């Protein structure tokens, strides 16, 4: 494992982190508490120090899992979590991954942070992220002043935002990094889904900001692990089961053109992480982890051969022509096209 430190901070994270949504929500299969804790401890043994939760994952379960997995290792791990969804009043209304109401009022942010601290059994959150914010929160000074207050009180070391749940949003992300002094921005980004992640990250450079990025959906919902076939079927409660069949078939066509990244010393799944880690703006990656074999593969990815400049150019060329695949444009929530001016 290798580690990176957020610019102008003392916040150091493993290049591969552990996102708890896979083991706490039931969207990637069901895990018992013992299974989840064992997988998290195995990750730690492999050098993973960043554990990314959210108060809404399992209605508090993901944060409780961190406390149970690492009762005596608080100073050896980095805890990232998120607030914003009002699961206290609406948690029972959840249907699959459909969103429930949000509340980003200062009072709600303070209460949610205190509740998260209690579930985590700690006195500070290393990275607090606003969960799936809209432009309304981006431009609301009271939201960011509240985060500053929590930081000054010592309850939060650093703060930022996490974008989604679709692959967006473009302008929310750009304005966050341009106008707010955030340490971290979490968003979707991978070889197959580079928009709007790329312009969001470029906006930080153009604005001269030190914001770094946490990358989720690193493998395009498992596609870049390289194991799907036209016969692949997902469990009824798996979120991938709701995607159109064209997503599976077109994705397989694209992945076959990336097989040149595989070698005896590097899997395609590891190469997908190495592609992200070529970017110095990336603080850490959050691949979806749901079994020990996969965990070992991803946790050892930083130690595999790095992608060459030639590899990067070839990937860029394939992406520029959509890997030669004709398909309907992706549907996003919000405006995803850059507007001139």
Write the layout of secondary structure elements.
Elements: E1 3-5, E2 12-14, E3 18-19, H1 21-24, H2 33-45, E4 50-52, H3 61-69, E5 78-83, H4 87-90, H5 106-120, E6 125-131, H6 135-138, H7 141-152, E7 156-162, H8 170-179, E8 184-188, H9 197-206, E9 212-216, H10 245-256, H11 268-277, E10 282-286, H12 292-299, H13 309-320
Parallel strand pairs: 3-4, 4-5, 5-6, 6-7, 7-8, 8-9, 9-10
Antiparallel strand pairs: 1-2
Summarize this structure briefly.
The protein has helices spanning 21-24, 33-45, 61-69, 87-90, 106-120, 135-138, 141-152, 170-179, 197-206, 245-256, 268-277, 292-299, 309-320; strands at 3-5, 12-14, 18-19, 50-52, 78-83, 125-131, 156-162, 184-188, 212-216, 282-286. Helix 2 crosses helix 3. By secondary structure, it is of the alpha/beta class.
The dominant shape is globular
Low-confidence stretches: none
Q: Major beta sheet, specifics?
A: 8 strands, parallel
Beta-strand content estimate: 5-15%
- Radius of gyration over all CA atoms, rounded: 19 Å
What's the β-strand tally? 10
What percentage of residues falls in helices of 4 or more residues? 25-40%
Order of helices and strands: EEEHHEHEHHEHHEHEHEHHEHH
Strand order within the widest sheet? 3-4-5-6-7-8-9-10
Q: Calculate the terminal CA-CA distance, rounded to whole Å.
A: 43 Å
- How many distinct helices? 13
Which class do the helix and strand fractions yield? alpha/beta
């Amino acid at each position: 494992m290798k580690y990176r430190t957020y610019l102008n901070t003392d916040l150091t994270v493993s290049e591969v982190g552990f996102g708890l949504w896979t083991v706490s929500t039931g969207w990637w299969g069901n895990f018992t508490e013992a299974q989840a804790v064992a997988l998290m401890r195995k990750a730690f043994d492999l050098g993973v120090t960043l554990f990314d939760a959210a108060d809404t994952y399992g209605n508090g379960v993901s944060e409780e899992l961190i406390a149970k997995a690492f009762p005596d290792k608080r100073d050896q791990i980095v805890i990232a979590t998120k607030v914003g969804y009002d699961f206290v009043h609406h948690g029972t209304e959840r249907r699959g991954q459909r969103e429930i109401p949000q509340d980003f009022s200062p009072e709600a942010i303070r209460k949610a942070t205190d509740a998260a601290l209690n579930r985590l059994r700690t006195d500070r959150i290393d990275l607090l992220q606003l969960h799936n914010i809209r432009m309304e929160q981006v431009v609301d000074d009271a939201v960011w002043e509240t985060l500053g207050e929590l930081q000054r009180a010592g309850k939060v070391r650093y703060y930022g935002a996490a974008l989604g749940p679709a692959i967006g949003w473009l302008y929310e992300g750009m304005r966050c990094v341009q106008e707010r002094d955030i340490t971290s921005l979490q968003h979707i980004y991978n070889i197959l889904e580079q928009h709007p992640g790329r312009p969001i990250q470029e906006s930080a450079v153009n604005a001269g900001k030190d914001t770094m990025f946490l990358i989720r959906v690193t493998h395009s919902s498992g596609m870049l692990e390289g194991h799907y076939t036209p016969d692949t079927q997902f469990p009824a409660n798996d979120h991938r089961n709701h995607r159109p069949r064209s997503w599976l078939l077109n994705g397989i066509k694209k992945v076959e053109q990336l097989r040149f990244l595989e070698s005896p010393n590097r899997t395609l799944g590891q190469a997908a992480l190495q592609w992200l880690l070529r970017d110095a703006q990336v603080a850490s990656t959050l691949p979806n982890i749901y079994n020990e074999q996969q965990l070992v593969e991803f946790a050892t990815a930083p130690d595999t051969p790095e992608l060459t400049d030639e590899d990067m150019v070839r990937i860029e060329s394939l992406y520029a022509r959509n890997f030669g695949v004709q398909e309907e444009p992706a549907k996003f929530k919000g405006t995803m096209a850059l507007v001139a001016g």
